[in-house]
Design goal:
The protein is α+β, with helices and mostly antiparallel strands and about 100 residues long. Helices cover about 20% and strands about 30% of the residues. The protein contains 2 helices and 6 strands. A 6-stranded antiparallel β-sheet has the order 4-3-2-1-5-6, covered by helices on one side.
C-alpha cells in the first residue's frame, strides 16, 4: 500500500469505514490510516494491511503533504475521503503497481 491510497476496513469494529493511508509502522509491518474525523492525521490508526481493501483510488494531495512533512488538516482529509466515496472521478484511479 502506498501513502495517499484510499482503503476500506475489512476487519474489526471499523469494518466498512473508509480511510486514507498516511504512513507505515515499519517495525510491525502495519500501515497507519486516518479518516479526518475519529482517526486524525495526528492520531492515525494502526491497521494490518491484510485487513484493508484497496479501492483503486489515490489522493495525490495527501501523498504530497505527508512526503513533504507538511501539516495535514483533518477537515481537508475528511472532505477528500468523502469526495472519493461520492465520486470516483474526483480521485485518480490507480492501476498496476501504484505508480
Amino acid at each position: 500500500m502506498k501513502i495517499g491510497q484510499v482503503v476500506i476496513s475489512k476487519q474489526g469494529k471499523d469494518t466498512g469505514k473508509w480511510y486514507v493511508v498516511v504512513g507505515y509502522d515499519e517495525r510491525s509491518g502495519f500501515v497507519l490510516v486516518a479518516d479526518g474525523k475519529k482517526r486524525t492525521s495526528a492520531n492515525p490508526k494502526r491497521k494490518n494491511p491484510k485487513h484493508l481493501q484497496p479501492t483503486g483510488m489515490f489522493i495525490k494531495e495527501v501523498a504530497e503533504m505527508v512526503e513533504g512533512r507538511k501539516c495535514l488538516a483533518d477537515n481537508q482529509l475528511l472532505s477528500l475521503i468523502e469526495s472519493c466515496r461520492n465520486e470516483e472521478t474526483t480521485c485518480g484511479k490507480v492501476t498496476g503497481s501504484y505508480a
